[in-house]
Write a structure and sequence with these properties.
152 residues; alpha+beta; 2 helices; 7 strands; 26% helix
Length: 152
């Protein structure tokens, strides 16, 4: 079983700056309390093929995750897939950004989760938790981006 969750939020910052902030996955701990540690490989600007390696805490357990950037279309689209093999993994995910009037940006984040092995039994629980948290997750992205990016 696979399923998707998403969140949509409006950030009071220009689309180019929000894109740059989100494309640097090393910013994820600023809005995702699950992410304990993250690095970019190679340690260079994000491009298609860049991998972000992280340690996350889910349901009280630490796991290692690797996500590869599969699409990068500045300043409107970022896509990734999880290349690590965990029981519940992200088949595909991404951000869609839309410039709004007055220098604001609409951000849509989505992830498609799938289960492997025992994860086929657990993915439903993971999806339910992710869907329940999605509005708060969107708000954390908004707050973090607005804090990190100076207003114009």
């Amino acid at each position: 079983m696979a399923g998707q969750f998403e969140a949509i939020v409006e950030v009071d910052r220009p689309v180019e700056e929000v894109f740059a902030y989100l494309a640097d996955g090393r910013n994820d701990p600023q809005f995702s309390p699950r992410v304990l540690k993250i690095e970019r490989v190679p340690d260079a600007p994000t491009t298609v093929g860049t991998v972000f390696r992280s340690t996350v805490k889910d349901a009280g357990m630490k796991t290692s995750r690797e996500f590869r950037i599969t699409e990068l279309e500045a300043p409107v689209r970022i896509r990734w897939t999880e290349v690590s093999k965990n029981s519940v993994a992200v088949l595909e995910g991404g951000y869609d950004l839309t410039a709004l009037p007055d220098g604001r940006t609409r951000v849509r984040i989505h992830n498609v989760l799938e289960g492997h092995g025992i994860g086929k039994l657990l993915v439903g629980l993971g999806l339910a938790a992710a869907r329940k948290d999605a509005p708060a997750f969107g708000e954390r992205i908004k707050r973090a981006a607005e804090t990190a990016i100076a207003p114009r």
